[in-house]
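Morning!

This is the sequence you dropped in the shared folder:
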Amino acid sequence: MYEMIELEDVERLVSEGALLIDVMSRKSYEESHLPGAVNISLKELDEEGTANLDRGRPVITYCFDYQ
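The structure's back. Tokens below.
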């Protein structure tokens, strides 16, 4: 299940322990990402790519590709 949330909610959820995942390409992530974000590109966002994630934490994914 997913839902769109506002920046204030992102900040609150991260402060409460949510995991922030940036799904941009590695290059875009390296150029710019939110503090504390982990990079798992859309191409890697599968069972293998997410195997090490803590399933007990909420997960927030985002993508902002300015190119």
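Headline: Residues 7-15 form the longest helix (9 residues).

More detail when I'm at my desk.
O.
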